Amino acid sequence: MNLLSALLKRYWLQLVFILLMAGAFIAGNVWSDRGWQKKWADRDSAESSQEVNARPPPVLLNRAALLPVMRL
């Protein structure tokens, strides 16, 4: 315990600096990752909405198929 206390008294500034740098690195990594996740989620959402809008509704497909039958 005495050795640990002596080491902390001698190297406290270096330990604080290392902990701050590690915290900043982790925070930057999390922030960057969340940015990419949001960008990919927006892209996937845009793609899925384009696919939904590109397909005609099933009701229109059924009516189009029945039109020749109804004219007979």
UniProtKB/TrEMBL annotation:
Q: Which residues cross the membrane?
A: 12-31
Which keywords, in A-to-Z order, does the entry hold? Membrane, Transmembrane, Transmembrane helix
Which Pfam families would you find in this protein's record? Answer: DUF2514
Q: Which InterPro entries match?
A: DUF2514 (IPR019659)
Q: Know the name of this protein?
A: Exported phage protein
Species for this entry: Salmonella enterica I
